[in-house]
Amino acid sequence: MRNLRWTGSTESWLAVVILLICLYLSFATDTFLTLVNLTDLMNSSAVNIVFAAGLLVVLIAGGIDISFAVGASVVQYLVAITVFKVGGGNWAVGIVLAMFFGFCLGAINATLIHRFRIVSIIVTISTFNLFFGLLMFLTGGRSIYNMPDWWTNRVVLFERETDLGWAEVTLPVAVMVAVVLATWLLLRRLSYGRQLFAMGDNTEAARRLGIDIGAMHYLAYGWLGMCAGIAGLMQAHYAQEIVPNALYGRELEVLAAVVLGGARLGGGRGTLLGAVLGLALISITQNGLNLMGISPYAFRMIVGAIILIAISLSNETIGLLREQFRSHRTERSAK
Question: For 164, which DSSP code?
Fold first, then answer.
């Protein structure tokens, strides 16, 4: 029965679609199904998967956040400034600082949403512009190239020389695995995860059950903030530079991937496997379009279409559930 249920799941359909696209690209291009391209795809997707893990927690809790990518850029600069002042630091210091600054940015969103009862999409649109505006104003749009050695030295976990060059798996992949595992433990093995699902499914019912809604807001947005901080740290390591607008626009790709993976925009539903598969599908599509020489604007259209379809399906599903609930209440009243 478990296998039968999985056969009709979002994850299974995504896996089938990914397989079909990979088969097509392996025949349509000479370089897609090569070790160099596949490891490059894994390295370049690691940052977005870290974003996706954090965003999934917020979506499950019934919120939405589009400020996380800009927040990651802010964290990059804050970490760089801080480690320069403390004498250079190391990876342990960098990760702790990134998580701290990221949590603080997430806590700003949580405070505005919970304390002032403002809709999450409105809050995060505002903080998106606030964070990015302050970053560009205070930095003058200048990039940082002089970074500490520990931040720029490449950490290679696996490497192999091929006819097309070196195939390498680097540090961001290991960090991605750690973040995904930690998020899975939060959602599936801790009571806090069950409380997040309950809040996203029905906030008022969760409140009546004694769940601290305020604490859940800080947990969800703080978790996304920490993931964004770590992702920003890994992006700077991967690119070997800190650019204020390098992550600008990533939020739409990640949001599309997570909702494509089955996360409901109304909250209460979503899986890490679905989010990772959704991100994999989008990354493979983008990679395939690049290899075939198709305009990158086509990719933006695909992302926009995915978000539009996901929102439409979510609204339809929520409306259907409300109608079923009303019918159920009517039947009970009649009896």
Answer: T
Rounded to whole angstroms, the Cα distance separating 113 from 105 reads: 13
- The model's pLDDT over 249-294, given as tens digits with 9 standing for 90+, comes to 899 889 989 988 889 888 889 999 999 999 998 999 889 989 998 8
Q: Closest Cα to residue 251, out of 54, 11, 15?
A: 54
Is residue 225 within 8 A of residue 103, CB to CB? The reply is yes
Residue 1 is classified by DSSP as -
Report the candidate in 251, 257, 284, 280 with the shortest Cα–Cα distance to residue 270.
257
Using alpha carbons, list the distances in angstroms from residue 169 to 19, 40, 135, 150.
22, 8, 31, 18
Contact 92, 150 (CB under 8 A): no
Closest CA to 106 of 272, 191, 262, 220: 220
**pLDDT for 231:** 98
For 88-145, write each residue's pLDDT tens digit.
889 999 999 999 999 999 999 999 999 999 999 999 999 999 999 999 999 999 999 9
Residue range 323-334, pLDDT digits in tens = 544 554 554 555
Structure token pair of residue 221 = 């947005």
Look at residue 86 and give its three-state secondary structure: coil
Smallest CA-to-CA distance from 11 within 283, 274, 269, 257 is with: 274
3-state helix, strand, coil in the chain (%, to 5): 75, 5, 20
